[in-house]
Amino acid sequence: MLLVVRTDKQRFTIRASASRLDKGLLAIPQKFKDWFPGEKGQIQVVFDDEEKAKVVTFHPYDATVKYNRIFGLRHWFSKRNVHEGDLITITLEDPDRRLYRIALERFVQERQEQNARQKLRAAGTDSEAEQELSTLSRLSRKRPREVAQEELLRIAQESARQPRPRVFPGAAERHEGVPSGLRVLLRELHDGKCQLCSFTFEKRNGEPYFEIHHLDPKIGYQPSNLLVVCPNCHAQSEHATVTDFKWAGNWLVGVTVNGKRVGVRQPFAHDSLKGALLGLSILVAVTQIGRLWVR
Length: 295
Known about the structure:
Helices cover 36% and strands 24% of the residues. It is elongated. By secondary structure, it is of the alpha+beta class. Helix 4 crosses helix 6. It contains eight helices and 15 strands. The strands form four sheets. Strands 1-2-7-8-4-5-6-3 form an eight-stranded mixed beta sheet. The termini are far apart.
């Protein structure tokens, strides 16, 4: 059954049912019959965020089936992998032209999230990155910190360790800073607090002060190569004797600075540890099964 879940000025949303999906059609409740032609014929439909309209068949309200019906949607159902329970929005774009838009909300949201994600990564300023992080948080209905952790992990998985870009101001050579998108994600995840000592201070604009340390100065912006640090720990990381690096997967979790052991607060280490423990558990189970089989 198709259930109306929301209405507004020129748009309503219905929930897809298995029976209609199998028949390649949408059934429009009687309350919206005035939005559609009163006779059998063809209407124009634009799907999702596309621009070009396609012609499909329309049957008006029938007392027998008690629905208006839009046919010829089987290809779109298959293309978008529409399944039972999905929300589908129908918008009356132009009644004179019999033009409608049919959009799968899940797909539209995914496209919006993808667009916000791309803008976040390409942000030229922290304020632009903050805006896109807020958009992602709203779309996904997750807290900004949770979104920041997911995005940093996604970037880490998608990006390779590449040489760090250089800029040449005058005769001096230096490395580029960290892109705004990554800075905002790291700040959100760690509250701007140093991953080594947890220190920060509030700047005049109310934001926490922090710096970002590249574990390998020659490697770029791969998240596992970056640490949020305070100025003191940053200076120690650059100039002190730093040895005995301890890793959980690709993530640094501990170092020795001038002979003193220092832990690194690393949220992603838990995921790496879980993966390692799972792998060990599987190995132990397989070994035990093998022994039983030999017996």
